[in-house]
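Researcher: Here's a chain I'd like modeled. Treat it as a single chain, no partners, no ligands.
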Amino acid sequence: MLVLGLESSCDETAAAIVEGDGLVRSSVVATQHDLHAEYGGVVPEIASRAHVERIQPVVREAIAQAGITPRDLDAVAVANQPGLVGSLLVGVAAAKALAWSLGVPLVGVNHVHAHLDAVRLRHDETVDHADVFPALGLVVSGGHTAIYRVASRTQFERVGSTIDDAMGEAFDKVAQILRLPHPGGPEVDRLASEPDADPGRFRLPVPRLPKRPLDFSFSGLKTAVLYTVRGTPRPAKEGGGFPRELTDVSDIDRRDLAASFQRTAVKAVMLKLGRALDERVPEARALIAGGGVTANSHLRSELARFAHEHDLELKLPKPEFCIDNAAMIASLGADVLESQGADGISLTPTPTTAR
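Model: Modeled as a single isolated chain. Structure tokens:
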């Protein structure tokens, strides 16, 4: 089965051709980093307009790289939830038009679930994931931070999620505080990985949420970084404002603060993972992780340590498939089509995901 996948949930316009077993025939991703850099984050209206401009060229390129014609396709899969509703609408409309014109099934795919299926993606080597379920799943990206009980390739139960900022969003906001380029996540990792970086220099609070033990919160950690750089805000009766400017932080302070933030954020994730394993997925045979933040060097090493300590098989996507891509949409779409059937032309974009 050859499946065309479309991804436009946020700021990447992507198309891919994937065989039903996860073999990637082509994967094309058009990023929008240059469009959003001056704002320090994704502007929904700009993202939607860019998707409209790029969706057709990206699809044509994916088909050309795969060495096929549109008539060779057996199905079209599209990320229809969750995400920015305007961005999702572009991909869903394009997928409907393609599926209808080619007379092939249309499948809606949950973007977050697809990040967990990305571990199956490959270019040539054989990978067998049939025996890893049930698994403990972790998705960490710019828009999502969640823990799942994964019963099969198409059965996902969310057991914990963020109540405010996602982990990747927190990385980007801290990068802004530290005056690092956009996208900020890789820049924080780079700075924190410098040989002399001291991750223990700044003591930052590890968010725990005692009343919601499996959920995440990164807003307080982000604020702690801001106050470390600029100082505690003055009372309103004293004029308000911060005692220091962002430009007052030294290069050494920026480096050590990046390392301290990264260590604290990853520690929060590992604490929740351990609790979820004990309380919700004690029978797990594997740890599956996906999303853009799984490319972070410290998180990857901590996931490897966690898996080893708990005798779990660790499944991580190739770095190129950690970011938003359409290959993961096509791969999961093939499984959803087989197990649940096709969606109709009335498929709609849904910006949020029900628990």
